[in-house]
Amino acid sequence: MIQRVVERACASSAGEVLVATDDARIAAAVHDPRRPGAVIAVLTNPDLPSGTDRVAAVAAARGWDDDTVVVNVQGDEPFLPPRLIDQAAGLLERDRGAGIATLATPVASLAEFLDPNAVKVVTAHDGAALYFRPCADPVVARRGVRRPWQSARVCGRDASRRLVRISRRRAEAHHALAAVGSRAAREAGAVRALENGIRIAVGTCVEPPAPGVDTPEDLERARKRAAVGP
User: Fold this and answer.
1) 191 by DSSP, 3-state: which?
2) Residue 125 resides in a domain
3) What is the chain's Cα-based Rg?
4) Helix (H, G, I), strand (E, B) or coil at 177
5) Which residues have a Cβ under 8 Å from the Cβ of 197 and sit 6 or more positions away?
6) Directed axis angle between helix 51-62 and helix 171-179, to 10°?
7) Where residue 106 sits, what CATH number does that domain have?
8) Domain range for residue 97?
9) Does the model's pTM come out above 0.85?
10) Over the stretch 120-167, which tens digit does the pLDDT of each residue have?
11) 224 in a structural domain
12) CA angle, corner 203, sides to 68 and 87, nearest 5?
């Protein structure tokens, strides 16, 4: 699955694709199809609490300056359209006040709306993230609509989009997030960013993303999809 994510990233316009991992088995398995024989895995400290911290460790080890832009794609997105990687990159370039850019897509069903693995994002009128929430409550829907999850509101704001697990950050934001503590050891980097005043720009996907892999059932569906093609 990780190699499929690598291949999706390599199909984008990214200049370099690396895999930050604390698992030697993953490091041995991944490769860049554009550069046969190149080492793309970077082994990180297994004690790091999150992917955000692993990316920050790579940025520090590579000596990236604060303006270096990094797209962070999670390893459980084997069918992520490469266009979305490029879109996230462009979003951060356009919003110079943001330290992080990410994407969201409309919730497609009631099951997805209620799924705690599909994190919902609520944004301000200028597109900046206000907060993220895994569960539907305290989201309420307007009455009299055919698909109530498509009109879900939280305190008058749209809450009918789910987060896509891709983000683009300036290395400065990674360094800042790695330097601060959080209420929970594995708290999401996005939540940590909001707690520390880092603006997160949120765009709507230009192409519908395929579901990620969060559960054994998701994995089985992904295997079936892989067997018939992308």
Assistant:
1) helix
2) yes
3) 18
4) helix
5) none
6) 120
7) 3.90.550.10
8) 68-228
9) no
10) 888 888 888 888 877 554 444 444 444 554 555 444 455 567 778 777
11) yes
12) 50
